[in-house]
């Protein structure tokens, strides 16, 4: 009898494991299909993503105007025009000088890497083994390729080609419509979805929007603080290319952990080439102090709530994003990981706290969706 009961339990466990495995396989297949479709539709998906990111930056001002009596269309128009003027001013005052010095910046980085290589070959390290030298040369080549790609993307971007112009224009129009009609999206979505999805999907969308907005705004402000403080230190030490390095620091702030290391490495290499070892060490100390202030003071004060991601998860997400989609992937890796965490946390809440049966016989979908 006990043997029969044990065999039944084993068969039940195997059937459950098989069912779960098939469900996970279906989820992975659907995820792969969605990613493939997004890749085929990238010319539309990329402006949509850029428009959403721009909306997270400009929505607080639009919300302020709407609360003070401005009509949605007027508030969205004013914010869009103001953003366009600010962006044009940035391009005229910063991007043009940075672009003119991009070649010098790349040459300085390459020269700094070569100096490090010569220093490693001399005393006290005296690295002379051929295998180590070949590995070091391979690492240098990869770093140079990455730096060239990053500098080219940061300085020139896609705005120099026709596709970049189209992306910018589409993103600007999408930002206007998001600012104008964004608050209507969740009620409309609630009416379109059947059953319990009318409650679950809008809640997840609302939480995802809050998380995305908190990330973009906090990273932008922290990046601005880093750029100002590090740029001021470089200016006091009379390190050349202060403006390109400050812009690189600001942009790199949107890639947590890896971005700060990359921008700091470039600044130290430029200081080593132009000012010598002493100033390079001073620049390194400035960057370490600023990064400590960012991690322990600025970010906790500015970011009202964290992303709920461990530093190891952030690092793995950035690495995976960079390997899959280069610079764009590294920029989008952390927001995507944060949105996945939002969905997972909501699913865990629903599984741990099952909904109670309605007492009045009304359908659960009749409940109001929290805003």
Automatic annotation (TrEMBL):
Alphabetical list of InterPro entries matching this protein: AI-2E-like
Keyword annotations of the record: Cell membrane, Membrane, Transmembrane, Transmembrane helix, Transport
Subcellular location: Cell membrane
Region entry Disordered, spans: 352-371
Residue stretches spanning the membrane: 20-38, 44-62, 74-96, 160-179, 220-237, 243-273, 280-299, 311-344
Membrane-topology annotation of the record: Multi-pass membrane protein
UniProt keyword DNA-binding, yes or no: no
Main subcellular location: membrane
Pfam families: AI-2E_transport
Annotated PANTHER family: PERMEASE PERM-RELATED, TRANSMEMBRANE PROTEIN
Family membership: Belongs to the autoinducer-2 exporter (AI-2E) (TC 2.A.86) family.
Protein name, per record: AI-2E family transporter
């Amino acid at each position: 009898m006990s043997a029969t009961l044990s065999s039944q339990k084993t068969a039940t466990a195997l059937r459950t494991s098989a069912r779960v495995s098939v469900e996970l396989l279906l989820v992975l297949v659907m995820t792969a299909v969605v990613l493939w479709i997004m890749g085929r539709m990238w010319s539309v998906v990329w402006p949509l993503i850029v428009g959403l990111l721009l909306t997270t930056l400009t929505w607080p001002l639009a919300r302020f105007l709407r609360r003070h009596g401005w009509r949605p269309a007027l508030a969205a128009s004013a914010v869009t025009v103001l953003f366009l003027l600010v962006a044009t001013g940035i391009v005229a005052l910063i991007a043009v000088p940075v672009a003119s010095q991009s070649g010098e910046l790349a040459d300085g980085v390459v020269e700094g890497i070569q100096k490090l290589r010569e220093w490693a070959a001399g005393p006290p390290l005296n690295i002379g083994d051929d295998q180590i030298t070949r590995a070091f040369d391979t690492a240098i080549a990869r770093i140079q390729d990455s730096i060239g790609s990053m500098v080219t993307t940061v300085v020139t971007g896609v705005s120099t080609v026709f596709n970049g112009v189209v992306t910018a224009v589409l993103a600007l129009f999408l930002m206007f419509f998001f600012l104008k009609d964004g608050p209507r999206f969740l009620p409309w979505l609630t009416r379109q979805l059947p059953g319990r999805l009318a409650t679950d999907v809008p809640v997840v969308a609302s939480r995802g929007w809050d998380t995305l907005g908190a990330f973009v705004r906090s990273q932008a402000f922290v990046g601005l603080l880093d750029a100002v403080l590090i740029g001021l230190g470089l200016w006091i030490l009379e390190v050349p290319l202060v403006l390109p390095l400050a812009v690189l620091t600001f942009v790199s702030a949107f890639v947590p952990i890896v971005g700060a290391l990359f921008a700091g490495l470039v600044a130290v290499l430029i200081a080593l080439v132009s000012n010598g070892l002493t100033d390079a060490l001073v620049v390194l100390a400035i960057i370490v102090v600023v990064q400590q202030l960012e991690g322990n003071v600025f970010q906790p004060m500015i970011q009202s709530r964290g992303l709920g991601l461990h530093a190891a998860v952030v690092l793995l997400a950035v690495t995976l994003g960079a390997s899959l989609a280069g610079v764009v992937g590294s920029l989008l890796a952390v927001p995507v990981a944060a949105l996945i965490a939002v969905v997972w946390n909501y699913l865990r809440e629903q599984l741990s706290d099952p909904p109670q049966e309605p007492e009045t016989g009304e359908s659960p979908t009749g409940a109001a969706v929290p805003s």
